[in-house]
């Protein structure tokens, strides 16, 4: 099959695809769409950027149009679950684009924004609801949504769902769905947990796999730059200032690291924004919109955003830090070379990340071409400077603590020194005194024969 018109999609959907500039279906679209039009359950294995959103959205819209009914209040006919806000928003946009001539009610709900508009959309009833699991459960618990009228459910990026700890919420959501439904699982990888979950929730599913598990995008040119950790920012700025880097994504491991890198790039005169879980939804959308329309040249992101950024014409992906989970590398570099384009992925690797690089190469079954930009390739990297702890309050540091015998320092001249062992003299008998506390005045000794004061013939104890 070489055209969408051969797949059996509704005429309004074909018209929308033509408007979007779609001509030839990708392999996963050509295989999945006919099966989904038959109402079959599906387990789809496809790396990011292969067009899987279109593969499940267009047949589901066609099935909704074939069974027209008015959405009932507080219900949705189709439910799509996504792991992140960005991915949910993009899937919602795709359903609106493919169904622009179908007159369907589509809504997207996720955390980080107010409930008002979401409650209003749910109250009217929906044809398609795209949601993140946490916010969806909130609405269900508040009585804003029921799922007993849902005829189809999609679990997108299922492996990422499990990585983020959504297994329990997913089970709760699926327990409220009718047993007679169409269920679709899409995942970039197939770990044991996903296979087990699919076995529980899918009924005699068809399996579509268009790429080997954990295979990196074919049109991405990859390379590694070995560099000292302290020089990473310098190398990153030099790379991004090249005119070839016209739209780039930089990945870090931590949220704080993303903010620091974005600030460094801004100081170097580059337009950069950070996007991560600590940013508000409005901040994340504003940064993503700026990146899409070209106002922001560099987007600095954490792994949580790796699968939610679907932007065309990303020329480069730079791994400022290698991910601790090798599969995340596949999703990171999949942000470039989308929709048939080509792209480049560059990873900055310091000495402490060598094991992470080996794990990535083992997973992807390839050796990534490397360039050594270390100043002293044969020398080990400098250890982090040791910060000396201050002496305890009220005390004096002892320079001889821990020093070997014979190397202990003598106090400066004029300071009191203890006499050598065996030459210390004890005070004469009767003159030994207990140590006096600071500021304490010693009472003068009693005169001979002086006793304690008496009262009624008895001594009074002070």
UniProtKB/TrEMBL annotation:
CDD domains: DEADc, SF2_C_DEAD. A motif (Q motif) lies at residues 2-30. Residues 33-208 form the Helicase ATP-binding domain. GO terms for cellular component: cytosol. It catalyses: ATP + H2O = ADP + phosphate + H(+). InterPro entries: DEAD/DEAH_box_helicase_dom (IPR011545), DEAD/DEAH_RhlB (IPR044742), DEAD_box_RNA_helicase (IPR050079), Helicase_ATP-bd (IPR014001), Helicase_C-like (IPR001650), P-loop_NTPase (IPR027417), RNA_helicase_DEAD_Q_motif (IPR014014). GO terms for molecular function: ATP binding; hydrolase activity; nucleic acid binding; RNA helicase activity. Residues 2-30 form the DEAD-box RNA helicase Q domain. Residues 219-379 form the Helicase C-terminal domain. Pfam families: DEAD (PF00270), Helicase_C (PF00271). It comes from the Bacteria. Residues 392-433 have a biased composition (Low complexity). Gene3D superfamilies: P-loop containing nucleotide triphosphate hydrolases. Residues 368-462 are annotated as: Disordered. Belongs to the DEAD box helicase family. This is DEAD-box ATP-dependent RNA helicase RhpA. It comes from Rhodoblastus acidophilus (Rhodopseudomonas acidophila). The lineage of its organism: Bacteria, Pseudomonadati, Pseudomonadota, Alphaproteobacteria, Hyphomicrobiales.
């Amino acid at each position: 099959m070489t055209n969408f018109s051969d797949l059996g999609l509704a005429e309004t959907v074909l018209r929308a695809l033509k408007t979007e500039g779609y001509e030839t279906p990708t392999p996963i679209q050509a295989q999945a769409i006919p099966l989904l039009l038959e109402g079959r359950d599906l387990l789809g294995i496809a790396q990011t950027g292969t067009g899987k959103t279109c593969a499940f959205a267009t047949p589901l819209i066609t099935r909704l149009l074939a069974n027209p009914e008015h959405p009932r209040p507080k219900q949705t006919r189709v439910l799509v679950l996504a792991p992140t806000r960005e991915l949910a928003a993009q899937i919602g946009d795709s359903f609106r684009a493919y169904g622009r001539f179908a007159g369907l009610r589509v809504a997207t709900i996720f955390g980080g924004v107010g409930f008002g508009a979401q409650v209003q959309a749910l109250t009217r009833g929906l044809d398609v609801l795209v949601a993140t699991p946490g916010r969806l459960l909130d609405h269900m618990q508040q009585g804003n949504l029921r799922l007993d009228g849902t005829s189809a459910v999609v679990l997108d990026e299922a492996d990422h769902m499990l990585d983020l700890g959504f297994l329990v919420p997913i089970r709760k959501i699926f327990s409220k769905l009718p047993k007679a439904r169409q269920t679709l699982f899409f995942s970039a990888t197939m770990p044991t947990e996903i296979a087990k979950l699919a076995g529980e929730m899918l009924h005699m599913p068809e399996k579509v796999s268009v790429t080997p598990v954990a295979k990196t995008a074919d049109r991405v040119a990859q390379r590694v730059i070995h560099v000292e950790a302290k020089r990473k920012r310098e190398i990153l700025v030099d790379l991004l200032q090249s005119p070839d880097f016209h739209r780039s994504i930089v990945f870090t491991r931590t949220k704080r690291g993303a903010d620091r890198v974005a600030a460094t790039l801004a100081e170097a005169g580059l337009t950069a924004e950070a996007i991560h879980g600590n940013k508000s939804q409005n901040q994340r959308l504003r940064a993503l919109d700026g990146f899409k329309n070209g106002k922001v040249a560099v987007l600095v992101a954490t792994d949580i955003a790796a699968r939610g950024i679907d932007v065309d014409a990303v020329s480069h992906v730079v791994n400022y830090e290698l991910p601790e989970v090798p599969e995340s590398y596949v999703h990171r570099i999949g942000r470039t070379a989308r929709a048939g384009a080509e792209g480049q992925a560059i990873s900055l690797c310091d000495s402490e990340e060598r094991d992470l690089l080996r794990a990535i190469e083992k997973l992807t079954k390839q050796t990534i071409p490397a360039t050594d930009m270390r100043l002293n390739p044969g020398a080990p990297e400098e250890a982090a400077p040791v910060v000396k702890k201050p002496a305890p309050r009220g005390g004096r540091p002892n320079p001889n603590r821990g020093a070997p015998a014979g190397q202990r320092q003598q106090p400066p001249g004029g300071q009191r020194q203890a006499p050598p062992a065996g030459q210390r003299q004890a005070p004469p008998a009767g003159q030994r005194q207990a140590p006096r506390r600071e500021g304490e005045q010693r009472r003068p000794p009693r005169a001979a024969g002086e006793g304690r004061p008496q009262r009624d013939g008895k001594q009074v104890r002070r």
